[in-house]
Write a structure and sequence with these properties.
- By secondary structure, the chain is α/β, with parallel strands linked by helices.
- It is 46% helix and 15% strand.
- It has three domains: 47 residues, Transferase, Pyrimidine Nucleoside Phosphorylase, Chain C (Transferase, Pyrimidine Nucleoside Phosphorylase, Chain A, domain 3); 246 residues, Pyrimidine Nucleoside Phosphorylase, Chain A, domain 2; 92 residues, Aldehyde Oxidoreductase, domain 3.
- The protein has a four-stranded mixed beta sheet with strand order 1-4-5-13, sandwiched between helices.
- The longest helix has 18 residues.
- The model has no long low-confidence stretch (mean pLDDT 95).
- Bound molecules: uracil.
- Uracil binds next to helix 9.
Length: 436
Amino acid sequence: MRASEIIRAKRDGGRLRPEEIRFLVDGYAGGAIPDYQLAAFCMAVFFRGMDGEETAALTEAMLRSGQVLDLSDVPGVKVDKHSTGGVGDKVSLALAPIAAACGVVVPMVSGRGLGHTGGTLDKLEAIPGFRVDLPVSRFRELLRRNGACLIGQTAEIAPADKKLYALRDVTATVESIPLIAGSIMSKKLAEGIDGLVLDVKVGRGAFMKRREEAGLLARTLAGIGRAMGKRVTVLLTDMEQPLGLAVGNALEAAEAVELLRGGGPPDLREVTLALCAEMLLLAGVETGGAAARRRVERAVADGSALERFRRIVEDQGGDPRAVDDLARLPRAPVQRDVPATAAGVVQAIDAEAIGLAAMSLGAGRVRVEDRVDPAVGVVLRHKVGEAVERGAPLATLHAARQGGEPVEAVAARVAAAYRLGPDPASPGPLVLERIG
Ligand code: URA
């Protein structure tokens, strides 16, 4: 088999055999097939798509590039959550300790920033010392101890996704249903979970901009999970405007902690608690939606979720004092308000534009080897439906003194992402659909 022939076959709209897909994935993971060939392959898949069998073969090949964990020796039902990616989506940081405090075991293998969206790993690493590169033996140990452990793909867990994810991030090949499905499900199925809650984001800030394509992605993900014997629930959630107020790694980590302290923006809280309640249902911790919801709210209100987060941070090498004193998180040297040029009600905020603005301040990657700046980002001061006076700040940029796009240019882009108008406006529903 030759990689170039397989790429050509997909480029020309052909259907690939499982062994051809395996050849590419194994060759890439093992280093025999170079980045440029996989980049071309991803672009061919982006344009030509894959059918259900090809997508299943891709997922399987990526899954088998590493080991599939057997966590049966860790007591409890293991349920994870994964998001298809959004702007300001710091849900996992708060959700894992809440679910764990309620008795769910959460083995979470997350990703880094992808495209204009942030990644859980980069947000966790904004906490000084926090390690996401733990060996599987430690992952297992911490799951037993804390009921949750959050790591990245390793040489052991879905290594093909680790490489492909980074490659897709910088080759404009993220927004593809088979590539997203293979990426998410390979690492999730490798985790040794019993159940999975998926948060499929829809809207301007999501990879799936339209409801129909998000529905297709949701059904593809759920189909792969169920075919592998897992319990799966999917929520389609709104990503028209950023989730919460903070966009940028340390800023988002701080907002997740505020949620765990019982505060935080209402939309972030709503999506986090809704997803968490679904995890409790899949784990069998509660049997009814209302009881599950009460239980997750209690775990936040009584401080047990926050206490769990402190333990997770400490055991993963992070500074637990940063959880109680957010001033210990990295802070950007420059804060610059973005004023409204006219008075009005916020009609819409282009989440993708805000995500890209945060990236250009240094919160995301342009090349695979780039390092993110944990401190930089954008904090929204107003969301859809809120009235703003002329000259009042729409958002605040947190910027480094040097590097990245000039702050003035980013400020103009953030201002342009806001659409103001005279009419009252209200955001749409946060949870658009549940596929249980
Ligand atoms: N999350 C992932 O893990 N992979 C994708 O491709 C998109 C979102």
